[in-house]
């Protein structure tokens, strides 16, 4: 005997319709992203598997591995990214710590120093460094006036100049997540540590620092990934001597119309970025498991 | 100077012992701020080499900027694009944030991730990809092309800002509105939107800045009559250091700061 | 405020499952026009879910809901014409009190002047006359609740739904508001469905109570019947204080600890039903007590003075610990004394786990 279930089919239809209507609100946005990004990138992906003669091949990727210039490009990219990240950590962590120890009002005020560069156009900041670091620029002028060095130093159009510019641009990206995490660290943990007899140094390294790690790893990850794909600053401050992956991609298109090489490079860059993100997400999870054991 | 010996942390560190930290932090803040703002006084310098402090003050670089047809056209293009981007990205992003935050389908999470991808994919890849597609679609050097690309880039920012505001928003407000007779649409407009106003305005400001400051995609996709300010600036930077750029930079800083100040002013919930 | 006709509510076979959890299990319920019905139950019982189904915010898997003759099961919440008051008031913070209350009127295209009149009348009904221009954040909890109420009734709905509206208020204010709500209901006469987990609240305010547990209606009755004649163990234990002892039924007679039990009617079937013992129905007997009195032997183990009554903790001969509430001012035997506990025949209630 079939039990009475009035309205069942109609109600189910209503439920399905409602769910898809809600999802449908996101469809214009999804359409835009699909058409302007997903499809072009997929197209490029497809392109990378075609040789210059138009036949299906892995020639582009082979060239990436074989030609030493590409090896240098990848090396440069990783070198700059790692060094930038490291310097940002060394400068950004103390700054974030300083800010987190200030009372809220003062911290918000000082935060402007971090947010102002972030809001200012990338181009403007890069240009500022160009002007500052050039031979007749401010740094050289003051350095020589103060007697620190005699002849104007080549501070820009090289690796070092690029590094300075990148650090300046990436620093806010590191400071913000670290600061956020530090602010949320419960002061009671430090009080407990002091109560139990820990010296200030020990309390910092064994209680505060581990608790600030999630923010630090997030910040470092963001900075590193941004550096990997960076274009403007190495292009302007590098003087043609600092070629990162994105510079190479651009040159291959602009000068040589070599879609094969560019798309292959681009795909490699994308895959690299995704792998790093994926790897980081696994590590962070593990850290939380271990951290949970230590923290308690 | 007694505060030097006063302990200031839970672990009894004194201000005195921390002076090195304060000095370092101040130095870093100077490092961050000075290069950002140094362009402003330099732009008033008379000489070709942009001295600081300027020996002779003059407005010649501003005159060069305002008198140049090319620069003015590029500026107009940038502003047009930025406004258009706001008009496209803000509603699309807000609607998407609203729909996805209400939806309980598993597809919603997938859709959310998809909408965030423009932030993850390397911008250069997007640049050449869009270039390639636009060549085929004949959208190169058109305003529409740039606006679509910039809207795609701004979308994730609007989405994240509005979605985060919706998370802390009291969902029962809309329920009440509906129980009183409002359709979902009316409830959203009359009840929800006024309360997430700050987030939407922030999203709009971010969309504007994303478009206005964007260099790489514009480099590939804009050109000719529809070249953006940033594209021209970038090309000028690569060739030689044109001091006019200092004046343009100052104006850009002005635009950005004004925008931020306005969004803070109009965004904060006011009684009334 | 003269009120249009209120409507009865008919709930048939309403079922709602979340994954494998059955929140509502084939509920059948008839709510009379104009009555104040309380859905009473512990958290997770499904009472709020049922209210949300009535409002239209939760879609049941199957079943039908009718307001009067109209089947509203598939009608969206904004077209059901129901007034609703939530636990957290959900007042619109960006609007004034008057704007909040006028909201449903604006949606119904009621002219400004007429709307203003109705808003003021609604505010006066909830004793907030003249508060129209105040801001929401200037109001206390009780005042906010009343604004929410005014907003829910200003458009004269046929049905009013309330989801634990008083649980965020402190005790005194809550008891005051209970009376206010009851008076408002008597004045306006609309069908009201009220959800609460507080049994006192339910007993105070309702015309009828539906006790809900595990998505099922355990008993639907007037407060008096629910309290004095619960039909199953859950209802008996949820309302009032209760202790249960097992009795044996065989051959049409009931036995407790071997002794026969006087019951108001012959027990129905053989088995092991439960006997309900409530503190205020038990007495200390100092004599035989009469032919309609059941007598249980026991020993006093504790005496607790509670101000308005004395609670005597007694251990019965067969081992169960039971409490007797006595308001008499007569002398109470000392702890340790052997006593006889009396339960009159009409108060002897046999229950099963399930009920009828």
List the helices and strands and how they pair.
The complex is a heterotrimer of chains A (296), B (272) and C (356).
Chain A lengths: L7 H17 L2 H21 L11 H8 L1 H34 L2 H16 L2 H12 L4 H8 L13 H25 L3 H9 L4 H29 L3 H6 L7 H10 L4 H37 L1
Chain B lengths: L18 H24 L17 H8 L1 H34 L3 H15 L2 H15 L5 H25 L4 H8 L4 H12 L1 H17 L2 H6 L7 H11 L4 H24 L5
Chain C lengths: L8 E10 L2 E11 L4 E5 L6 H9 L6 E6 L2 E2 L10 E4 L11 H11 L4 H14 L15 H13 L5 E5 L7 H18 L2 E6 L2 H7 L2 E6 L2 E6 L1 H6 L4 H6 L4 E4 L1 E3 L2 E4 L2 E3 L12 E4 L4 E4 L7 E13 L4 E7 L4 E6 L11 E7 L4 E3 L5
Parallel strand pairs in C: 3-8, 3-9, 6-7, 7-8
Antiparallel strand pairs in C: 1-2, 1-4, 4-5, 9-10, 11-15, 12-13, 13-14, 15-21, 16-20, 17-18, 17-20, 18-19
Helix pairs in contact in C: 2-3, 2-4, 3-4
Notes on the structure:
- The complex is a heterotrimer of chains A (296), B (272) and C (356).
- Chain A is mostly helical and 296 residues long.
- Chain A has helices spanning 8-24, 27-47, 59-66, 68-101, 104-119, 122-133, 138-145, 159-183, 187-195, 200-228, 232-237, 245-254, 259-295.
- Chain A has one domain: MetI-like (MetI-like fold).
- Helix content of chain A is 78%, strand content 0%.
- Chain B contains twelve helices and no strands.
- Chain B is mainly α and 272 residues long.
- In chain B, 47% of the residues are buried.
- The model of chain B has no long low-confidence stretch (mean pLDDT 87).
- Chain C is an alpha+beta fold and 356 residues long.
- Helix content of chain C is 24%, strand content 33%.
- In chain C, a hairpin with a 2-residue loop joins strand 1 and strand 2 (21-31).
- Chains in contact: A-B, A-C, B-C.
- At the A-B interface, helix 1, helix 2, helix 4, helix 5 and helix 6 of A face helix 1, helix 3, helix 4, helix 5 and helix 6 of B.
